[in-house]
Amino acid sequence: MRYLRSGPRRRQPDESAVSRGKTIGLRSGEIADRNIRVILEAIRRHGPLTRMELGQHSGLTGPGITNILRRLGDEGLVTSHRRSGAGSGATATEFALRPDGAFSIGVRVRQSRGEAVLIDLSGQVRDRQYFPLVPTARVPSILSATQTMMGRHAGLPIIGMGIGSNDWTSQESDELDAASIVVRSHVENECTASLLAERTIGAPAPEGGLAMIIIDEDVQAGFLVRGVPYSGMHGRAGSIGEMLTGPDNVQLNTVVGFGALRALVSDDEFKCLIAGEEASSPQLTQWIRDAASHLLDPIIAIAGFIAPSTIMIGGDLPRGAIEALIHQLSVERRDTSKRPFLTPWISPMKPASFSGGGVALGAALLPFLNTLLPPVSA
């Protein structure tokens, strides 16, 4: 956008909480950029707001807020109208987000299937498309799907594209950016994208952090600590699918991943399940029992070492299946015949707020977080 002096930001290495809080050494253009993002985020999350209320949320002065609001209005990102006073007859101008001011596309990329969403500035999904992916030619598949989507919404101010994937390569990014009509793409792993959706659009991040477990062909976890995703050394944090788990000491992916589910249920039931449709069968119940018996081990480790306020579980499975899995996890944690100890410290568990774990939605937020809203390290 024209008013962003410092331009889009790429993902930066993790920093300490102390360094994140400092603004010493920032250029004036970077400070102005940060203040604009803070005001827009306050309006997005809490609006409509008056200038006085924006000052309370941001700590900025009145003249600075007025200048920022004028620039945001010129860019078509906020609107204003008069707010009537409660009984006194006094009025004040309040400012609200203009959802149609900017749009973004997010794509969740797996080996053989993809999901694309188009969202507006408020985070509302305006369009969604599922499409097959050719493992050896994923970029052409994504281009075809996203260009079809953009054709249905010609003329919208689409500012970028986000990719949520665990195995996306820099070569694929270069190929996508060279062929796409969108300015450029931004990439995050699936769990981080899911956490960004929860943090930005879902309920406010609970004090103490958040953990997300995504179940797909593999099983992975992500962590939100003080509002910032934690990736660990070489991005290895959350690779729980490789753990040896359960009484039989087998790899988690082989019991909880979709390969194990596919082997138990019929082809038709599996297709229904990954499409988010509710289903019920003895085979699905058996998978839930096996999955809970093995998934409990990494959950105990997460709760013991990181102690998040909430552990969320998401993926393509329907909400009913995830709720049944969480219930079975509660049963397993009380069963001392398998583990000779109780685990009262385990964090509360609940399903992810969004379908697919919110991966595509979180990916769609990446262009906003890199150009308009406070970045993930803010």
From TrEMBL:
<dbReference type="InterPro" id="IPR011991">
    <property type="entry name" value="ArsR-like_HTH"/>
</dbReference>
<dbReference type="InterPro" id="IPR036390">
    <property type="entry name" value="WH_DNA-bd_sf"/>
</dbReference>
<dbReference type="GO" id="GO:0019262">
    <property type="term" value="P:N-acetylneuraminate catabolic process"/>
</dbReference>
<dbReference type="GO" id="GO:0006355">
    <property type="term" value="P:regulation of DNA-templated transcription"/>
</dbReference>
<dbReference type="InterPro" id="IPR043129">
    <property type="entry name" value="ATPase_NBD"/>
</dbReference>
<dbReference type="InterPro" id="IPR036388">
    <property type="entry name" value="WH-like_DNA-bd_sf"/>
</dbReference>
<dbReference type="InterPro" id="IPR000600">
    <property type="entry name" value="ROK"/>
</dbReference>
<dbReference type="Pfam" id="PF13412">
    <property type="entry name" value="HTH_24"/>
</dbReference>
<dbReference type="GO" id="GO:0009384">
    <property type="term" value="F:N-acylmannosamine kinase activity"/>
</dbReference>
<feature type="region of interest" description="Disordered">
    <location>
        <begin position="1"/>
        <end position="22"/>
    </location>
</feature>
<protein>
    <submittedName>
        <fullName>Transcriptional regulator</fullName>
    </submittedName>
</protein>
